[in-house]
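Hey,
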Amino acid sequence: GGSGCNPEAVSGYTTGCLSVLAELQMLEVSIERKSPLYHIEDDSSESGHLQLHNNAPVAGFFEPAVQLMDRVQAGDALGTISSVLGDQNTTVSANQTGVILGLRTLPYVEQNEWLAVILETERT
């Protein structure tokens, strides 16, 4: 699609896949091991449905104010949704404290579509 691609993320995913193959002894390759940035376990109800928490309150064009891997606090601005005619702007705030793990790249959103996935690092 037209949503673009983050070369740094592709490199990370590729390294991750190669690391799994090397660990399973299916591939002889030397991979630099890095310590994980975060280790988070979440056994709360619907914790696997990451896209449920930061949805568009209105339809329009979403302009993010954050980037992937940014740290945010609950209440921080994730971005702005402008109405189709441009006469109304709605600021969208984070519902959680954590790290931006997923971020919508296609600008047009319908009401209730996901905008950002936040990996919670703190519970309020």
